Fold:
Amino acid sequence: MAAIKSKLIGGNFLFSETDIKDVFIPEEFTEEQKMIWQTVYDFCMQEIHGMGFEKIALMDAEKDKDKVYEIFKKAGELGLYGISIPEEFGGMGADFNTGLLYTEALSLGLSFATTVGAQVSIGSLPIVFYGTQAQKEKYLPKIATGEYGCSYALTEPSSGSDANSAKTKATLSADGTHYLLNGQKMWITNGGFADIFIVFAKIEDDERLSAFIVEKSFGGIEIGKEEKKMGIKSSSTVQLFFNNVPIPKENLLGERGKGFNMALNILNNGRIKICAGGVGGMKFGITKSVEYANQRIQFDQPIAQFGAMKYKLGQMAMLAFINESAVYRVGADVDKKYKEFLANGATENDAKINSMREYAIECAILKVQGSEAICWTADEAIQIHGGMGYSMETGVEMAYRDARITKIYEGTNEINRMLALAEFYKRAFQTKELKINDAAKSIPLGIAQNFNPFNNGFLADETEIVSNLKSVFMIITGAAGRKLKTKLVDEQEIVMNLADIMSVAFMAESAILRVKKLNADKNTDKDQLKIKIKMTQLYVYEALEIARKAADNAIDSYASGVEKFTMKRVVGSLLKNYDINPKNTRRAIADAVIEANKYPF
Ligand SMILES: Cc1cc2nc3c(=O)[nH]c(=O)nc-3n(C[C@H](O)[C@H](O)[C@H](O)COP(=O)(O)OP(=O)(O)OC[C@H]3O[C@@H](n4cnc5c(N)ncnc54)[C@H](O)[C@@H]3O)c2cc1C
Structure:
């Protein structure tokens, strides 16, 4: 394939400025895409919320398995499982960003969102991305309708984060027609009712995993009891035991020994979807919270009027807006990259796989940011509801419990912070896809800009701050890397600090680009724009706080003496004070939410 000269390079946000014309913003979703959102939203409201929060909160995958399965089937009848399955195999063949919008709406399905999510994402995408024509023809149409439930089986009791150390083994039969699968998997979503399992196992004495499409009907699969979990209680989570399961040779998925890469790439997909789901959850949590805060009277006034409550509402709305800006920016880039690969002669499968892989850094960032934002929002939603937040009746305690898993699965947040950095190092120093040397040359300019008293233009200060955040990331990464060399990867505390600086730069930039694009469009609603600017500014203010703390921690942890003094001065001058009034900014955002009595952006 010809070498691609492209602007679409994952991680390149660190080294280049994105033109607003190249960025997708959520305000650009088409009517057709919004209809998909609406269909999923209506399904969640009717079939799930319709049961009442208390009933759902008390549901359990073991006790209520018939009801869970009934809802699972109903979603299939409505065609909800076909979103990412190509049309020729009975699906909708929607693009990736539409899939993210679908996931946003799906988050309203509470723990059932995990069930549908596993079906449309990790359970079926391995076949969509890596399957042969015959495998796609055989399985995808039945997955699209829900005739087949599916699940993804990577984790084992002794291998979680260290997934490649899995012990499940496949050995080729004497006549060479099939593999015999033996081993155990744990925490398998949808495992209680799935007909198809994507199982990762090592063939013979291979060092690396391979993947298989395993049908329950092959026999030899024992399904464990439903796990008793903290949240997402109605979603099925079981252990699987494989005892000489015969798998026809043609059910090897992708190439032998390439399963680990496949697993990681499918997880990239799951990671960004956690952020999209988080956005949906946050918007819903904000609406529930403000509805309550507007009608709950204490000290003769609605609690929404208290500054302490406005702080929470303003902060929640800002987090939803920032994550939304970033997640759909990346989703659209994945779609563009996919088309670019196709135009350059890639096969459909390769284009899908490589466009997703391209944005591994961004997917890891979004997974962490989205999950931490939804967990914080759910916690504060309980606080706004006071005692009622602790009651099953309002649904917010369930949202809090359900949200907590997002920091654990699809790779824990620690692993994802490390991954973002590891991928950055790989691209900067091994494959050299990222032009780190050119960027390093521009760092002194960044410092010089800091002293520019003539900064002007729309969001000029904020834009400069993002550029400085990137410079700070580069300076500390470079200096710590020179000092610690390969030992830097073992200094995980510093790696986490660096990941945080990198992340806030990306999130802030995404919101700034969105608002700049809106500002340039004469049709933009000016009142909404005012608040969107404030949300962006509030995040920039917070990003600086996060980056200052992370940078101090990193420098204090690796440097000493003159180097420490110099680094602190340089970083301190880059992360200068940003002059907004955070209280008034949050209040203005909260007032817009309070007036609309919902998340209105
Ligand atoms: C409800 C639920 C549903 C799930 N669904 C699925 C599914 O459908 N399919 C599937 O295959 N798996 C599934 N999982 C498994 C999930 O992906 C794992 O739980 C997750 O990857 C973490 O693995 P672990 O639980 O073994 O934790 P561990 O890997 O043991 O991690 C424990 C702690 O150690 C930290 N840690 C681990 N390694 C390192 C390191 N190198 N450096 C620093 N810190 C480290 C982690 O960040 C974490 O804080 C599910 C889990 C749950 C709870």
Notes: The mean pLDDT is 94.
